[in-house]
C-alpha cells in the first residue's frame, strides 16, 4: 500500500508472466508494485496457479516444449489461458473490491495489469467479467495481439509491446482494433 500522504485511491492487481510454468515475481511483480506504491497507487501482486511441471529441470523443459515447441505464435497465437489462472485473478479482483475501504482504495478504480502470461490472464478476466466484476482498466504488457470479441462493458485498455518481441510482435494489431471498434 502507498504511504497515506501519497495515496490516490487507485489500485492495480499485477499479474507476473512466466508462460504459466513459473512466475517472474520480482521483475514483473514486486518491483512493479513498489514503483506503483511510490506513486500513490495501491498494488497487489497476484500469485496464480501454474501448469504442473514436475520436480526436475528436465520435466520443466519437457512441459515447456509440449506447450510451446511446435507453436507459431505469429500465426497460431498463444496457447489458451488456463481457466485456473483466470479464476485466481478474478478472485483477487473480488477480494480487493471487497476490502477496498480497509485498504484505502476506491472500489471503482481497481484495475489489472499483467506481463506476457499475466497479460493473457488480465485480458481474459476483462473479456469474461460481468459489468459488476469488471476491472476499472486493464494493461496487458507484451501479450498477444489477436483480435477478440470485446464486451460492451469492457474497460479502457493500455497496451505495451516491443516492436521486436519474439513471441507477439509479428502478429497484427487485431486486439487494439477490436477494442477501438467496440469503444467507438
Model description:
- By secondary structure, the chain is α/β, with parallel strands linked by helices.
- 39% of the residues lie in helices and 10% in strands.
- It has seven helices and four strands; from the N terminus they run βαβααααβαβα.
- The protein has helices spanning 26-38, 57-68, 73-76, 83-98, 100-103, 117-128, 174-183; strands at residues 11-15, 42-45, 110-115, 138-141.
- The chain has a four-stranded parallel sheet, with helices on both faces.
- The chain is globular, with a radius of gyration of 17 Å.
- The mean pLDDT is 89.
Lateral strand order in the biggest sheet? 2-1-3-4
Helical element count?
7
Low-confidence stretches: none
For the secondary structure, the number of strands is 4
If you average the pLDDT, what whole number results? Answer: 89
Gross morphology: globular
Which class do the helix and strand fractions yield?
alpha/beta
Give the termini distance in whole angstroms.
35 Å
Strand proportion, as a percent range, falls in 5-15%
Order of helices and strands: EHEHHHHEHEH
Task: Show the helix and strand layout.
Elements (H helix, E strand, L loop, with lengths): L10 E5 L10 H13 L3 E4 L11 H12 L4 H4 L6 H16 L1 H4 L6 E6 L1 H12 L9 E4 L32 H10 L1
Parallel strand pairs: 1-2, 1-3, 3-4
Helix pairs in contact: 4-6
Give the tags.
single chain; 184 residues; alpha/beta; four-stranded parallel β-sheet; 7 helices; 4 strands; 10% strand
Summarize the model shown.
The protein is an alpha/beta fold and 184 residues long. It has helices spanning 26-38, 57-68, 73-76, 83-98, 100-103, 117-128, 174-183; strands at residues 11-15, 42-45, 110-115, 138-141.
Amino acid at each position: 500500500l502507498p504511504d497515506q500522504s501519497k495515496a490516490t485511491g487507485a489500485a492495480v492487481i499485477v499479474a507476473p508472466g512466466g508462460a504459466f510454468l513459473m512466475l517472474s515475481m520480482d521483475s514483473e511483480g514486486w518491483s512493479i508494485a513498489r514503483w506503483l506504491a511510490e506513486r500513490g497507487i495501491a498494488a497487489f501482486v497476484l500469485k496464480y496457479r501454474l501448469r504442473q511441471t514436475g520436480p526436475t529441470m528436465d520435466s520443466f523443459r519437457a512441459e515447456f516444449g509440449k506447450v510451446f515447441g511446435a507453436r507459431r505464435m505469429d500465426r497460431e497465437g498463444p496457447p489458451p489461458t488456463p481457466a485456473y489462472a483466470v479464476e485466481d485473478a478474478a478472485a483477487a479482483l473480488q477480494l480487493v473490491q471487497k476490502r477496498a475501504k480497509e485498504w484505502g482504495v476506491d472500489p471503482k478504480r481497481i484495475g489489472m495489469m499483467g506481463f506476457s502470461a499475466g497479460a493473457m490472464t488480465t485480458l481474459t478476466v476483462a473479456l469474461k467479467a460481468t459489468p459488476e466484476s469488471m476491472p476499472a482498466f486493464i494493461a496487458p504488457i507484451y501479450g498477444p495481439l489477436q483480435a477478440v470479441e470485446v464486451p460492451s462493458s469492457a474497460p479502457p485498455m493500455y497496451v505495451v509491446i516491443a516492436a521486436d518481441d519474439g513471441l507477439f510482435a509479428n502478429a497484427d494489431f487485431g486486439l487494439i482494433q477490436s477494442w477501438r471498434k467496440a469503444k467507438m
